[in-house]
Amino acid sequence: MISELEAMKNDRNIAGMARFGINPKGTLGVPMPKLRRMAKSLGKGHQLAAGLWDSGIHEARILASLVDAPSKVTEKQMESWVSDFDSWGVCDQVCMNLFSETPFAWKKAREWTERKEEFVKRAGFVLIAVLAVHDKKAEDQDFMPFLGSIKKGATDGRNFVRKAVNWALRQIGKRNKALNKAAISTAKEIRAMDSKAARWIAADALRELESGAVGVRLSKK
């Protein structure tokens, strides 16, 4: 499997990914559509995923998140993998494809937003964003504590953290009318903070959450 990935190496894509903040070390430049096709043909395999992850290759790790079985993922594995994150690409794909589907998603979202490591902290906020979109059974009250986490994380000026904080805030605010109101209120509190990162997060979130398009969509729910 690794040899198949290496055969698809694309130096031009690697250079392009580097411009968007993807660590070029251990990266092959294989696009996501090809990885998804590979995952579909492979099917689910927990041991296969472990082997792919251990290769350290960017695309192999994304493929691992696509083929692993969420029901077999342990907290120990999640902590091990999150400590290996070295780019937003792997972070986001693993959180979206795999971690958000595990029984530990909510717990890790809470824990990781408190961590100091850049991509671990980002992972916490990415999980919040993904849960806000995909966990249809969750209640509004489940998301309210996350607004406090978002407010706390809003002063983190690291690019990959602040963007994830913003993402989480916007996704909560687009879930329904009640959470939209709560998210807007939180964004306004963040806007008042003496922090460049916080002001950017608030301005960008309010631009979307107070938009007519979001208002119309939420009125139909």
Protein described:
- The chain has 221 residues and is an all-alpha fold.
- It has 2 domains: 1-85; 104-221, Serine Threonine Protein Phosphatase 5, Tetratricopeptide repeat (Alpha Horseshoe), CATH 1.25.40.
- The chain has helices at residues 2-7, 11-19, 32-42, 46-54, 58-67, 75-84, 88-97, 105-112, 118-134, 140-153, 159-173, 177-191, 196-209, 212-219.
- Helix 5 packs parallel to helix 7, helix 8 packs across helix 9 and helix 10 packs parallel to helix 12 (177-191).
- It is globular, with a radius of gyration of 18 Å.
- It starts with a helix and ends with a helix.
Write the layout of secondary structure elements.
Blueprint: H1 2-7, H2 11-19, H3 32-42, H4 46-54, H5 58-67, H6 75-84, H7 88-97, H8 105-112, H9 118-134, H10 140-153, H11 159-173, H12 177-191, H13 196-209, H14 212-219
Give descriptors for this structure.
221 residues, mainly alpha, Serine Threonine Protein Phosphatase 5, Tetratricopeptide repeat, 14 helices, 71% helix
Fill in the CATH topology of the largest domain.
Serine Threonine Protein Phosphatase 5, Tetratricopeptide repeat
Can you count the beta strands? 0
Distance between the termini: 44 Å
Number of domains: 2
Q: Which spans of ≥5 residues are poorly predicted at pLDDT below 50?
A: none
Helix content: over 70%
Summed up, the helix count is: 14
Strand content: under 5%
